Amino acid sequence: MNFPSIRIFSLQVFLLSWVITPPYCEAQLGSWWSLASRTELLGAHSPELLLLSAAPNFCSHLEAGLSKGQERLCTLYQDHMSSIAHGADAGITECQYQFRNRRWNCTGTMDNKTDRIFGPLMKIGSRESAFVSAVLAAGVTHAVSRSCREGELSTCGCSKQPRPKILKEAWHWGGCGDNVQYGYKFAEGFIDVREKEKNYKRNSPEQARAFMNLHNNQAGRRAVYRAAKIACKCHGVSGSCSLKTCWHQLPPFRDIGMKIKSKYDAAAKVQLNRKGRLQAVDAGFVTPTAEDLVYLVDSPDYCLFNRKTGSQGTKDRKCDPLSQGTDGCDIMCCGRGFNTRKEVIRERCECKFQWCCYVACKTCERIAEVHTCK
Question: 207 lies in a domain?
Fold first, then answer.
C-alpha cells in the first residue's frame, strides 16, 4: 500500500516555505490536544464558532497549545479545527479505555493548563507517551477522513481511491467513502509541523525525542490507513444482491485503538545512532518498522503519586483479587495490599414491555464487595 506524502494542496506551499524557527519550550507551547476540551465550542454548527471564526485572531482565541506552524494552519483551515478537536477527543477517550485496567490509566496531575490532560508524562519519552502520540494522530486522521465524507470540509470530499483490482466487474465502485488519503495528509501536516519547525542540535536528546514523536505520529496514521476496508451495499430485485455499490470505509475507532495498543505492548526501545537515525537499543531486536511504536526511556512504575512524572499512583484504585492480569490486586496495588468494603448497587431489573410502547422496570438493590488498593 502506498502511503500519502506530506504535501497537501496549499499545505504543500505552506510547509515548503516555512522558515525554521528557534526551539520552543514545551511549557510555553502547551498541548494542541487540549482542543479536545473545546469540542462543544468547535461543533460544526455551533453559533459560538460562527462568531469566533469571524474574528481575525480566531486561532489565538482557541486557548490551545498550538505551535506557530499549527496556528498558521489553523488560519488556513479554520473549518478543519472542529475535526481536529473531535479527533483529539477520540484519541484521549480511547487511551483511557485501553489503559483503564493498568497502573497508568491515561490521566495526568491536572496541576496547570499545560498538563491538564496527560500531565508531565508527555515530557518523558516512554512507552506511554509513544502510545499517546500514535492514538492522537490516529484520532485526527480518522476524524478528518470522516468529515470529508460527510461534506463538512471545504477542501475535500468523498474518497478518490482507485477501484480495487479484487472487486468483481459487475460491482460498481463509487459510493461515498471515507477520504483516508486526505485525512492522512492533513493530520501529518498539522501534527508533524510542531516537531519540524524546531531546530535542535544534531544527536541531542531533544532531537531524539522529536524523531521519536514523528515516528509514533506516523505509526498512528498508518494504523488508520491500513484499517480502511471495502464496504458494499446490495442492489437488486427482492434483495438478490445481484448488483453492489462499494467504497472504502473506516471501522469504528475502537478497532484502531486496539491495534495501536498491541503496538504499545511490543514497542521497541531506541536511541540515536551516529548517522542521526533511531535504532533499537537491543542488538537482538528486529529493527522497528514505520508501523511500530518506539520509545527512549523506561516507564515509571506509576505505583505512587509523583508530581514530576505525572503519576497519580494506584491508591484507592479498584482491583480484582481473583485476576492475574494488570487489573488484579497483586499487580495494581504494587504489593501494598487492598481494602475491601461492601457497597449497595442499585440497578434496573424485572423489565417488562408495556403495550404500547415502553419498557417498565423496577429498581433492585444488591450488595457487592469492592476492593481498592491501599
Answer: yes
pLDDT computed for residue 235 by the predictor? 77
- Same-domain check for residues 327 and 186: no
Question: Of 306, 331, 349, which one is at a domain's C-terminal end?
Answer: 306
Q: What is the CATH number of the domain that holds 342?
A: 3.30.2460.20
Q: Residue 2 has what pLDDT?
A: 65
H or E element at residue 95: helix 81-98
Instruction: Mark whether 360 and 299 lie in a shared domain.
Output: no
Q: What is the DSSP string of 4-66?
A: P-S--THHHHHHHHPPP-----HHHH--GGGGGGGTTTT-TT-HHHHHHHTSTTTGGGG----
253 and 358 together in one domain: no
Q: Does any domain span residue 124?
A: yes
Is 135 within 8 Å of 124 (Cβ atoms)? no
pLDDT band at 25 (very low <50, low <70, confident <90, very high): very low
Could you give the CA distance from residue 59 to residue 77 in angstroms, rounded to a whole number?
10
CA 109 to CA 113: how far, in whole Å?
11
Q: What is the three-class DSSP state of 183?
A: helix
Give me the number of domains the chain comprises.
2
Say if residues 272 and 211 touch (Cβ distance below 8 Å): yes
pLDDT digits (tens, 9 = 90+) for 83-116: 999 999 999 999 999 999 999 998 764 444 444 5
Output the CA angle 178-138-125, nearest 5 degrees: 170
Cβ–Cβ < 8 Å for 190, 156: no
Residue-number span of the structural domain to which 292 is assigned: 10-306
What's the Cα-to-Cα distance from 302 to each of 104, 105, 212, 299, rounded to whole Å? 6, 9, 22, 8
Domain-located, residue 95:
yes
Give the pLDDT band of residue 56 (cuts 50, 70, 90).
low
Answer with the one of 260, 283, 306 that is the final residue of a domain: 306
Q: In 3-state terms, what secondary structure has residue 118?
A: coil
The mean pLDDT value for 286-302 works out to: 91
Query: Does residue 343 sit within a domain?
Result: yes
The listed range with the strongest mean pLDDT (76-80, 230-234, 316-320) is 316-320
205: nearest Cα among 272, 279, 131, 270: 272
Q: CB within 8 A of 50, min separation 6: which ones? A: none
